[in-house]
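[agent] plan:
  1. take the single chain provided in the ticket
  2. run structure prediction with default settings
  3. attach structure tokens to the ticket
  4. add a short note for the reviewer (M.T.)
[agent] executing step 1
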Amino acid sequence: MPEAWKPAVSGQLLGYARVSTAHQSNDAQVDDIEAAGVDPDRIYVDKLTGASRREDRPGLAALLDYARPGDVIVVKGVDRLGRDAAEVMLTIRDLLTRDIVIRALREGVDSSTPTGRAVLGIMASLAELELELGRERREAARASRKARGLPTGRPRALTPAQVEQVVKLAAAGESVSAIAESFRVGRDTVYRVLKAAEEAGDG
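[agent] step 2 finished; step 3 output follows
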């Protein structure tokens, strides 16, 4: 039985490498992407600190702007395409919609094949479901807190003394997760504190 969908794979081979902190190296990712046949001049790289947004990632933004239908984007793993599962899958959905091929080396998934496209399509659909469920959970939690007379807004910010402690703990090697748990705040709050401290130090 003939395949219902056959993508064009005559476009360019492109690569993308991303690391989560400035202390990690892209070299291993870049080496693997080059070994997959990607020209070094067509590998886009980002180094991130904290919970960076897509607009803070010039490498990914440039790649998505440059890529055209039929091009193949090679990554070490699908997790490189976003800072969390939902964003990764939404990026996958965007690329599949544009008929851009995704080739993830670690997972061995290639959307130029019907099976690979189906697997990535399911992952993207699950991301949409998770986003919707997350919105419902937040609304339910907000309604519950309101019914009990509890505050429903954002939690208070850290005091200057606590900010100083956060920076010291991070400098001593304490993980962001452990710091967030200690101060009963979200990891994003800790990342914002550290980013502000880094920028203040650069200034």
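[agent] step 4 note for reviewer: Confidence is low (pLDDT under 50) at residues 1-8.
[agent] ticket updated
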